[in-house]
Amino acid sequence: MKQYIAAFDQGTTSSRTIIFDQKGNIVAKSMKEFRQIYPKPGWVEHDPRDIVASQLSSYREALALAGITADEIAAVGIANQRETAIVWDRFTGKPVYNAIVWQCRRTSEMCEKLKPRYAKYVYERTGLNIDAYFSASKIRWILDNVPFARRRAEKGDLLFGTVDTYLIWYLTGGKVHATDYTNASRTMLYNIHALEWDAGLCRLFNIPPSMLPAVLPSGADFGETDASVLGAALPIRAAVGDQQAALFGQLCVRAGEAKNTYGTGCFLLMNTGKQAVASQNGLITTLTASLGAPDYALEGSVFVGGAVVQWLRDGLGLIDTAAETEAAALSVEDTGGVTVVPAFVGLGAPHWDPECRGVICGITRGTTAAHIIRASLEAIALQTFDIVHAMEQDLRINLSRLCVDGGASANNFLMQFQADILGADVVRPAVMESTALGAAYLAGLSCGYFKDIDSLRAEKGSAAVFMPHMSGAARAEKLRTWEQALSRTMYRAKV
Fold this sequence. Notes:
By secondary structure, the chain is α/β, with parallel strands linked by helices. The protein is built from 16 helices and 22 strands.
């Protein structure tokens, strides 16, 4: 009997496999880190062979830990780092260059040159701002800088894919070259309104359309694995970008439902249903995971979320472990007037100020380490507030409930403060692996392993619900001091 779903959660620094049962419970999981390659300052690469090897290694270990065989897996679902670009030979499967990672800034100058003339053109079609973050400029760089790459691409000999596409191609023995709507929507080449690769954008970035994969719903038939690779011929029934996977894993499938992932940064997505909302407040528009035609979502990113805790530990030496921050924050009644703006690499949505840098405001002789720690945690929630507020303005709604996941969401102080500053319930799930769970849900629904979304919702439950207790006056004062600190941060960037 096919009793389990295997979710491949291929991330920026590690590849993980999580085995789920029919109730959405974790049976086993394994994680394998892989090399990060930094050829020059601001450049970030991965060796695609490392990605594949680490993913297969984690899969085999997860099977062993679960005490099961590949024959007991009903389907495989893949969630992946999104914008990372890989170009390979369609005949040999050999990459022509390392994967250029979403973090890589080597194409910033190229993008800046395009912005004055083409920013509106690109946004109207893709919902994205022209930026080195997305895949298109990375593909062009490979074609322009790898010897003979452009000539081979124009002959039809090269293929492009995000990480999901490359894994699918490898796992199926080169039989399937496909991606899903969510990953396609992050390339800056996909028209999210027409749901097709955009010929005008391909011309703009000088990318042959023959390189591009077929685009399917996130929960669809992506072929069968070669039996020699995974130990059995297993159906691949889901491929989905990591943040959309987390949105689906939280079952935020109705308009107005939102999730925030608290990782190194924070990624907040709100489902907007069949309406593609053009943000007037610094957000991007993207596609959601689906079993058919996708919905739309607004997305906002915080550059420094959990990374502020790493800074407290590694930069300031105020803590030894991240877990210490909760007790430290609760050891003082408030921040003692201190506000931290962790704009270490500028500010993301909705401010989009790459030049500003972090500040600590309100330090007095009485300021202690605990005050700075508490203010740093509050800063994560306050940055999230700014994104939620932007979404509320775009959609003219008030958010009543925010689903959360990611490492920092385990911090009870942070989650309670998040609820307080939003004036909304914050819901933390029992299973925190929302990204992998989303891939598993999609694969399971696609192959009939799971009945429907309502049955998943009945099984899911929540581990904790944080309800707002802060008074309106206290919330207004906290937001006022935050705005003051932000203005000082952004003013410094312009002086």
